[in-house]
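ok trying this again, last paste got cut off
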Amino acid sequence: MDKIIKHGLTVVEVCEAEIDAMSLWSKKKPAIALGSASISRKQIDAIKRTPIERLVISTDADKAGEKVAEQIRQAFPELQIYRRVLPEGIKDVNEALTARPTCLVEEPRPLPRWERLNTYKCPQ
């Protein structure tokens, strides 16, 4: 969170696991990790104290990831919320970057309404 505040970053991805956030940082994409499949009041308050304007939900492609994604969406009505959609068969951001790095070429999609988007096909 310190880097986000220090550098005035306004677009940040949020992941469940630290390894996913570190993988995104390695690709020059600022990210924060929740450390679990839920977001706490303390984490919500900390994010609200940053200059973040666009929050990209990059949670795991499973039921727990969908649940925390919905919690995040509801917690930040004042922010632009985007969703990084992983290709079918890819569990998380780290797997996408290690197994098939081109899978994160496509930019996250804005969510004008909440829906599960899973039709994205990974480029070959």
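PB: full thing came through this time. The CA atoms of residues 38 and 68 lie 5 Å apart.
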